[in-house]
Amino acid sequence: MRIELTQIERIENYLLGTMSTGDKNEFEKELNSNPELRSQLDIQTQIAEGIRRIGLTTTAQKSYKKYKAKLLWTKVIVGLGIAAIVGGTIFAVLNTAANEKEPLTEANLEPATSTHDYVVEADKEETVVVDSLEDGTGLIEGPQITDKEVQSSTEFNTAENNNSSANSSGSTSGLEDLDELNPYLETEIFTVSTDRDTVLESKDGLVLYLPDDAFETSSKEVDVILQTAIKTEDILYAGLNTKTLDGVPLQTAGMFYLTAKNSRGEVALKREIVVDIPTAEIKSGMELFRGERSENNELLWTNPRPLEKPLIPMDILTLDFYPPNYEPSMNAWGFSEKDFLDSMYYSFSNQNYESDLNTLIAYSNGDFDGSGMTSRRVNYESYSFANVLPNRIVERDRSTTRSGRKLDGRVSTGTMNSYDISRFGTIMNKSENQPYIDMTSKRIKTVSNDSVWFKVRSNINNTAILECYIQGTNSDLPNAHFLYGAPNPATPNIEDEGMLTLFLSDLNITEGCRLLRIDKKVRKGKGWDWEARDNEQYAEVRKYEFLIEFTSAFSQLKLNYAYQRRQVTYKGDRGFGNGRKKVRFFSPVEDSVLITFWRDDSKDFINPASVKTIWDRKFNETNLATKAFEERMEWIHESCDQRVLDVYINNLNLPLHTVDSMAARRAGDLEEKFYLFGARGEGQVELEDEASKELTQYYKKRREEIINSVSEEQANFWKEQDSLDRDFDSKSNMNQLTNLAAASDFKGNVDRSGFSEGNIATQNVQGERSSRVYRARINISGWFNCDNVVGMVGGILTAPLIGVGAIAVGVANGVKNTVERVKEEIRYKDWSATVKDEGDYDRVNLYLVPTHLTSYLKINKGPAGNYTYEINGDYDYKTLVMAWRGSEIYYSLCNTKKNDGELELALSDDETVKSIIRQEIPNVRTLTENVDYVTLSQANNQRKKENDWRKEFREKVKPAIFPCLVGENNINDNFSGKEDVIVPEYLESNEPFELKWNIDPKDFKMELIGSNGELIATVTDPNGSWSIEDDFEYRITYLNRNNEQKSMVGNIVHEYRGKFALP
Amino acid sequence: MEDKTIKLLHEGKVEKAFTKLYKYFPKVEKHVCINSGSKEEALDIYQEALVLFYRKVTSKELKPGTSPEGFLVKTSKLLWNNELRKKKRRQGKSAEGLSSIDDSENIQEKIQQEEQSKIVEKILHQIGEKCKSILTLFYFESLSMDKIAKRFGYKTVQSAKVQKYKCMENARKLVLEHQSKPEND
Question: Which residues are bridge partners to A835 per DSSP?
Fold first, then answer.
């Protein structure tokens, strides 16, 4: 080590008190005799103090942010509380209203459906909630309570509601003649006016759009009669089968029966009715089958027609765009608040990744309006770049200068547009009158003909220097304002009109970065940097230098400046101090430039900052604000490729399935996944016809309604969260929250949580709509089934169904069959069973259910008195038998064996059977049946037990956020396992420097840097040996065994062995 | 009973303590704003007061029973008075009319002592981010060189130490440079 450094080490040890007594005495003796050492000690003491001060002031700043963040946080909680109370009140009023009309007896209300459900006792015609469209104006009213307009009743519930309504079958007039009604399903009856559009929602979430005059009738009102079988237990209890008329098994997404009648009987449909069938996931190949009776009068399915898959936009903030493992991991660690998750996630935007910072973006857009100048009048229009989202247009702030002085009243107006150039490779051509970004020099050029321009010089360790150049000629004005423009040889006495005076009025950090310093000299208004430029020998460039530190991968800063043009006319010879000159000033023009820094697109990770950009209400009503996109987002994260995300962002005008195929080509290994998305044929968010428009509005309305009805439970939930957060705070875990305040737009989040229906409020409200639907247009009454074909029965895939089944390149749920496979490989097994004492029961339903499909095969008893079927050997099945005797229910559930033999049934009750069905049998998934988030979170609320996780925590979360970066980014890698290379730590003088390799490195490069910072040598031979006398630093890069880029740096010192002596 | 924040400071939990102490900031903000200052100035002042409070506490000079609130508010007022005096002097006005503030704890003295560190602090901002980080981690957060080496990816602790000494050397050069120049502020 150099002697100077050794000296520093000694002093440090003395100051820190880590010297041995002997050394200390010696040192103090020296101090007395050596004023040089004494002064070095002084300075080092001062530096240590100065450093501590830096630590203190930085900490103080951090603390202040935290303090502010906490204030905000408190406000968020308060806001939520209010929302919840208001919601509760509305609700109470509604319920009271219902009770006043006709008291609902508790017995008729199932506990789970105690909100605004439609279950009513059959013989009291009652209740009723309907959403009707007044006069087709599109204005949807909230739930109304009316006596006659609509009614809904529960009919024929002999099995389930066996108390009061057991014998009510047929007691309500008019339904007996409807042969197709299933006696085991609840019937909903809506009375609707025929002279206006109506939107209805069934208890299972089916939404119907009935245009006016939809029925072949002249009566003013008709009863719309609806039965739905979407819940598994409904399907099984009702004895419905999911097979085509030809015996091909189907996978169902739900079935429904729809008809209408007036007092004279059933009425036919005249116009098309639109039915939305809710679903939690869109499967490819789903079609609408029509029900038809088979020879033995069983309801089977036929005549498939394609379904529409409209994208229904939701509030984007209710969607989940996190990396798939992020939220589960955080939940597992006890964190579930959306705000916290957001802040944590976005705070990762500031990781110092290896990719370069992509600078620039942005523009100032000005106008020399009203300046009185005759030439070069510039008219700027907002540019519209292809593919650029107009979401960051910022109003130009032109009020005052920094000193508070109002600039001339005739300041030009204009808007500032900023463009994110990371989105497009090439920028528009340079054009005389427009600002542009010069990609080669990375300069942001502004409008005034190069007079003002910006440049980002370097970016190391999250900092960059932003240079602001103001260029002119021959500054001889007292106020250091400068001139622009070389004298025109033809008119030497008149300066060009391009002279400018510039005020730097303000620098505003908008977000994501902070200003470390402004070049000192400039701040004092002194000091000029000259930059010789080839073609402009008179040019003088003034440079303001800002050192900026990025705290986020997405940052913006806004610079306000003003410039003023002058015209100078010389009388007599032009020259320094010669002649007289006349200066004319023109109105100042104020302008600003918004500069966005954005870390470059990466193939290794999806930048949280870009997720942040799109996870914003601005993108509501776009393809991104849909459940469909949310699903893709999961795989976009999986791809770790920013470009895949960008494809979706940049093509909002295309149907989603088109974009899917574009994404597939960029998705590498996940190509197939995205093609499969594409195969679903999902469209785009659009409002094309009346029905879609009305339905979209209905969903919107419904959404708001649900938000408003945040129940007390949620209020309590948040209250509890609040107290937990205080606890949380006291454990000093606010750090991450503060990162949010610092690194991202906290306001946005406040906004969101005030609205926090996301995971919590809505999920628990009965009837929350799934935002994914299959849309069917029907013009005939009867039974319908939303299905796709499952290739389970060999030999009988009929021609029309092959057409359908061919889409089943792997029916969703990961079932690995293709049509070819169906033909060639499926092994079928004969199966048979009998039911013990079958004759004792009134009714027996026996089902074979493949364990991974929502396919319910009802097996009918064969002539020999047993149940038989050819089962697909590739699937596992369950055998479910339910039988009724009087009001008693018996059941048996087992895994299907080759031969189930005699099945013995056990007596049970409805509740047990239904819960077993829900657990054991695959469900038609709708959102209503998802796990209750509140329960889940509360279970997770036994949290915050650890106290010292803070530092490790970010590391812990990182793999969930950047699955593809794990390992690479972990500097500790260098310290674990067998090292690739051993580098000496000390060298004897004259000892050569050599590396000992445990691997055979590729692409080896080493730079050796001397203690003065100069490059001594660059070497590429990993096994060489080098003699260097000085202390030096090495920087090594190479590819390891796995072809991963590795790098390491270090200092090599020549061991000092002699006794310390003063120079 | 010793105040909680003082305890935190003794334990080295500075950030947490400061976060708590910011709750008295509104008072200071009000005082500064009433006396022709801005919010930013108030923040600067309060930050300085926090630094002084820290120094007092860690050097065990704080009288037992002193309330953090009292100290911080009083110190902030003193600091703002000083600031106003400077401003007026710059404007060529006399500093009369500033109310005097009780300084029984010799805070003014502490403020003077801190001035030198303040100057050095400013100079140290020029030594580069990496050096600043290393030195701050070592001197302020008292992190071991072992951890610092890991954090910065140095292969050995010795390498990191050498880096630290180089940083110190740079800092020394800067300070010396500054001291040899006549004061230009």
Answer: A903
CB–CB of B162 and A1031 under 8 A? yes
Domain membership of residue A723 (yes or no) is: yes
The complex's ipTM works out to: 0.89
pLDDT in tens, A708-748: 433 333 444 445 545 554 443 333 333 333 332 222 222 22
Give me the number of domains chain B comprises: 2
CB contact under 8 A, A1053 and B123: no
Query: Are A650 and A537 in the same domain?
Result: no
The four Cα atoms A250, A254, A257, A258 give a dihedral, to 10 degrees, of -120
Give how many domains chain A has, as a whole number: 4
Instruction: Tell me, yes or no, if A50 comes closer than 8 A to chain B by beta carbon.
Output: yes
Cα A85–Cα A88–Cα A94 angle in degrees, nearest 5 = 145
- CB contact A750 to B (< 8 Å): no
Indicate whether A368 belongs to any domain.
no
Nearest-neighbour CA in chain B from A510: distance (Å) = 17
Q: pLDDT tens across A782-814, in order?
A: 777 777 766 433 322 222 222 222 222 223 233
**Distance set, CA A693 to CA A94, A199, A701 (Å):** 27, 12, 12
Radius of gyration of chain A (CA): 38
How many contacts, defined by CB atoms under 8 Å, are there between A and B? Answer: 149
Q: Do B121 and A54 touch (CB under 8 A)?
A: yes
What pLDDT is attached to residue B50?
92
Token representation of residue A962: 């950047």
Tell whether A421 and A568 lie within a shared domain. Answer: yes
pTM above 0.80, yes or no: no
Each residue's pLDDT tens digit, A290-319: 888 887 778 888 877 777 666 777 777 777
Can you spell out the DSSP letters for A296-346? TS-EEEEEEEE-B-------GGGS--S-TTHHHHHHHTT---HHHHHHHHH
Helices A933-940, A712-730: inter-axial angle, 10-degree rounding: 30
Which chain A residue has the Cα nearest residue B150?
A972
Instruction: Flag if A50 and B159 touch (Cβ within 8 Å).
Output: no
In the predicted model, what is the mean pLDDT of residues A240-245?
Answer: 82
A938 in any annotated domain: no
Give the mean pLDDT of A909-913: 83
Residue A816 contacts by C-beta under 8 Å, 6 or more apart in sequence? A810
